[in-house]
Amino acid sequence: MGTSISFKRPDGKDANGYLANAARGNAPGVVVIQEWWGLSEQIKGLCDRFAVAGFDALAPDLYAGKVVPYHDTDAAGKEMNSLDFMDATTQTVRGAAQYLGKNGAKVGLTGFCLGGAVTIIGAAKIPELTAGVVFYGIPPEAAAKPADIKIPLQAHFANKDDWCTPQLVDAFANGMKAAGKSLELFRYDADHAFVNEQRQSVHDREAAELAWGRATEFFRKHLG
Fold it and tell me: Whose CA is closest to 120, among 159, 148, 80?
């Protein structure tokens, strides 16, 4: 449904991504950030689904074409740990937000796992954003702390998550509350990455559909 495109980062460098456009011409935008596997077919499918829901969706390729197979967690960890999160967020992701907002459209940001952490950093660092939806990812406070968040956030976390643990989620939620920031928090009795239907070992369709409905409703409320 979508297409591969290139777009400019604020520093003038080229970045690549996958774009799926809504049927209407004046649609709001959503930047979609990959898991630690890379810009997989599953993430492209989510862009297509956002387009059907009425949003122009762009997933920037943060790994420059590299996609890690789902079984290879060591390779995925290596790619994620070698990613410059600040450059990726303030340049590549911001460039994607600028691309979607070039005709005056409001733009939101969402991401999964690694992309969830990038979403929180973006919520603090990217001025073009209006709202964000986080899926099971939290960055270190050195990258972005709750007091730095500048947009309303919705967040979806899994109770059986051993990476983004319930304790980490509690700390983030408490930090957002203490800083007076807007956070809609949802928890699911599911595993990390429960939205990814390509990973049957962790996918939870009921939780995924519930989260999807909440996310699209939140974006419609804030983006139009």
Answer: 148
